[in-house]
Amino acid sequence: MEILVYGIGGIGGYFGGKLANAGLNVSMIARGEHLKAIQKHGLEVESINGNFKVKPKMATSNVAEVPKPDLVILGIKSWQIPSVAKELKPIIGEKTMVLPLQNGADNYEKLIEVLPKKNVLAGLCFVVSFIEKPGKIKHTAFEPKITFGESDNSQSDRILKIHALFDKAGIENSIPKNIQLEIWKKFLFICTVSGIGGLTRVSIDKIRESEYLFEMMRNTAKEIIAVGKAKNIPLTDKHLEMVFEIINSQPKGNTASTQRDIMQGKPSELENFNGYIVKQGKKLGVDTPINRYIYECLKPMEEAARKSG
Q1: Which domains, and CATH codes, for the chain?
Q2: How far is residue 177's CA from residue 181's CA, in Å, rounded to a whole number?
Q3: Could you tell me if 297 and 199 are in contact, meaning their C-beta atoms sit under 8 angstroms apart?
Q4: Could you read off the pLDDT of 191-219 as tens digits, one per residue?
Q5: What are the contacts of 284-290 at 24+ separation with CB within 8 A?
Q6: What digits encode the pLDDT tens for the residues 276-303?
Q7: Over 90: is that where the pLDDT of 270 sits?
Q8: Is the dihedral of CA 175, 181, 183, 188 positive or negative?
Q9: Would the pTM of this model clear 0.85, i.e. be above it?
Q10: Per the database record, which ranges form the Ketopantoate reductase N-terminal domain (predicted)?
């Protein structure tokens, strides 16, 4: 199987590295000094589960150079999906599978606006990893896991084939009964902490120490659940409590990646997080005042980051 990993940051670098380390045919799309280092020395992964170094079949910035892929894994940010999908379209074959792993609730929908529906899967992942320096990925927390499936939640042959592929690479993975619910469960956590983190510019433990901010987080999450329910996602109060168990268990100093992007003046996933909830709420007749407050306060910074980026 020909595998293309587009985006060799924390997600694509870790999982792409694991696949290459298992001897699979992995091509990688990267940029700048990171790409040069991979081309020259290979990709190094420092992990709490053991370090390794791999030489991908190909590392390039040009998708036209890679072998026609059977599986494309997207390790990009959610806001990059539309442009990357257009870039990928010429190399998507009849049976190519495209698996998005980024945060966000509507990555599948964004992809099928550009690519044929039959080629697109739904997915998410759990891993805390990042580019430590050009050519090197550092995995620091969580047992990395990929959760994925067909959009109709059927147990197709191709889904089972990917499951076996991930097993071979030593990647923990699961095919849930309802992939949309799993995507929204993760989205509920990441959207609840990201925007408010970007506003306050302090770690999650500092936010939860404030009674006012903690209540603000709960109201943010309740609005997300209300929008999800309006979209027929079976979220419940149980999921709300599960998210706050995760929030309450976050160690001191932890921040979300979108918060870090906002604080560093980089383009972030604000539009795909709080912005998405605000727009969907308006469309579906669900009030989202807390998410709107967060979104509108951060939007000028986001627009400035996009112009400079």
Answers
A1: 2-177 (3.40.50.720), 180-308 (1.10.1040.10)
A2: 9
A3: yes
A4: 999 999 999 999 999 999 999 999 999 99
A5: 284/227, 284/230, 284/231, 285/230, 286/223, 286/226, 286/227, 286/230, 287/223, 287/226, 288/223, 288/226, 288/227, 289/223, 290/216, 290/219, 290/220, 290/223
A6: 999 999 999 999 999 999 999 999 999 9
A7: yes
A8: negative
A9: yes
A10: 3-152
Hey, is 72 helix, strand or coil? strand
Read off the pLDDT band of 130 (50, 70, 90): very high
Mean pLDDT over 118-147 rounds to 95
SS3 content of the chain, % helix, strand, coil (to 5): 50, 20, 30
Paired sense of beta strands 25-29 and 58-60, if any: parallel
3 state DSSP class of 77: coil
Eight-class DSSP state of 91? G
The neighbouring-strand residues paired with 173 are 146
For 270, phi then psi, to 5°, come to -50, -45
Closest CA to 54 of 78, 79, 83, 24: 24
What secondary structure, in 3-state letters, does 228-271 show? HHHCCCCCCHHHHHHHHHHHHHCCCCCCCHHHHHHHCCCCCCCC
- The whole-angstrom separation of Cα 113 and Cα 22 is 33
CA distance 168 to 187: 28
Which among 120, 115, 110, 116 is positioned nearest to 148, based on CA atoms? 120
